[in-house]
Amino acid sequence: MTVPPEAAEFTIPIRDSTDVLRARGSARELAARLKLGSADQTRLATAVSELTRNILQYAGEGTCTIINASDDHQRCIRVIVEDHGPGIPDIPLALRDGYSTGGGLGAGLPGVQRLMDEFQITSQPGHTCLTMAMNRPRTPFT
Amino acid sequence: MTEAVDFNVARWLEAQQEAVLDAWMSDIVSRWKKNYLHVVDTEHLHLQSRQLLEEIRKLFVENPNEFWEPTPDSKIVVLIRSLSTQRAKQGFKPADSTFYVLSLKRVLWRRLLQDRIAENKVALATCLAMIENVIDRLTLLIYEVYVETRERLIAQQSLSLLELSTPVVRLWDRVLMVPLIGVMDTQRARQTTERLLEAIAKYEATVAILDVTGVPVLDTSVAGHIMKTIAAAQMLGARVVMTGISPDGAQTLVKLGVDFSVVTTRATLRAGVAESLLLVGKRIVAVKDAP
C-alpha cells in the first residue's frame, strides 16, 4: 500500500503490526518522492514506526494520516496519529527520557520529539492526537 | 392442486441428468481450459460433478416444499468443502472456483426455460427459486472454504518464514553469528534469543556477532528486543559484537536516545568478524604469510 502520487493526504488504519509496516513504508515513500535525504527518510520512518506501534500497544487501534503539506518555500511532511484509547495522563512525564508504563525503553516519545521538527500532543481519555512534521527548505533541484 | 405445482424438480432433474451434465461440463471446460485443465483431471471432474448433481437431486427429494439449509455434516457440504479446498490449493482464482456451481445454475435455468413447464409461471418460479437457493448456498460455501484454505496457507507460510529467518551460524570455534533479517517483533525476538542461548551453551561460545544489516527500521521497540537478547547472551558469558547499523540508522538511534554502549559495535560485518576473531585470539592472514 502506497501513497497515491496526487494525494495530499492519506489515512492508514492501524490495527495490527502489518499496518505499522504500511504506515512507515508510505511515509518513507513520500519522503523519497519529495527528495528528502536518506537520513531524513530513515528518521521519518522511525518516528512513524514509534507512534503507530504505541497505538497498538496502548490503544489497540487508531489511524495514521500522512500529509504532504509542502508549499513554494519548503517541503513538509505532516503526520497525524490518532486513537481512541485511554489517553496519556501526564504528557510532560511521558516526554521524559526513560519513562515508560509499557515496559519499553522509554525513549519513544522523547526520541520522536527530537527526530522531528514539530511535535504536539493533545490527549484526553478517549481521544489522543499526536501531530508531527518534518520541514526542509526547497533547493533548486527539488 | 394444479398440475403445475405437482411438477417435481427432483424427477425433472433425474430425467435431465445426462444432458445437464454434458452441458455443464462443456461450459466448465471452455472456461477452465486456458488456466487450469492441466491441474484438473477431467475424468475425476466428471465423476465429482455427477456425484454433486446426484446430491442436489436428493436435496430436492428430501426438501420438496421448503428451502434447504446446509448442515455441516451433510454429504453435499462435505463434497463441496473437499472440492473447494482442493481448488484453492491448486491456485484457482476465487471467481473461477465459484464459477463451477454458477455454471450449473446457468445450465439448469436454460433447460428449465426450454421445458414445457415454462408455460406455467407459478411452477417455473417455484423451481427457479429452489435451484437458486441451493446454488447460492453452495456458492457461499465455496467462497468461505476458499478463504479458509488461503488463510491457512498464509499462516503456514509466515510460520515457515519465522523458522527460516532466525538461523544461528557457527562461524568459528567459540564464535557464533546471528544475521537478523526483516521485521523484529516480540515473537521473532523471543525465538532469536532462545536459539542464540542454546547455541552459546552448546558450542561454549564466547563471542556472538549480531548482524542487523537486514533490519529495515531500528526503532525503540526493535532496539529494546535486541538489548534483551544481548543481555541474555552476556549472562551466559558471551561477548556480543553488533554489526551492520547504517549511518542513517546510527543517527536516528542517537536521536532516539537508544544507548548501545554496553556492546561492542562495528559498522560492517567484516570489521565485526575481525574483532570477534581477535577476542578468541585468532586472526585471518594471507596464505603466503602463514608460518
UniProtKB/TrEMBL annotation, chain A:
GO terms for molecular function: protein serine/threonine kinase activity. SMART domains: HATPase_c. It comes from the Bacteria. It holds the Pfam family HATPase_c_2. InterPro entries: Anti-sigma-factor_SerPK (IPR050267), HATPase_C_sf (IPR036890), HATPase_dom (IPR003594). Residues 39-138 form the Histidine kinase/HSP90-like ATPase domain. Keywords: Kinase, Serine/threonine-protein kinase, Transferase. This is Anti-sigma regulatory factor, serine/threonine protein kinase. It comes from Candidatus Contendobacter odensis Run_B_J11.
UniProtKB/TrEMBL annotation, chain B:
Residues 165-276 form the STAS domain. It holds the Pfam family STAS. The keyword Phosphoprotein applies. CDD domains: STAS_RsbR_RsbS_like. Signal peptide: none annotated. Keywords: Phosphoprotein. InterPro entries: Bact_StressResp_Reg (IPR051932), RsbRD_N_dom (IPR025751), STAS_dom (IPR002645), STAS_dom_sf (IPR036513). It comes from the Bacteria. This is Anti-sigma-factor antagonist. The lineage of its organism: Bacteria, Pseudomonadati, Pseudomonadota, Gammaproteobacteria, Candidatus Competibacteraceae.
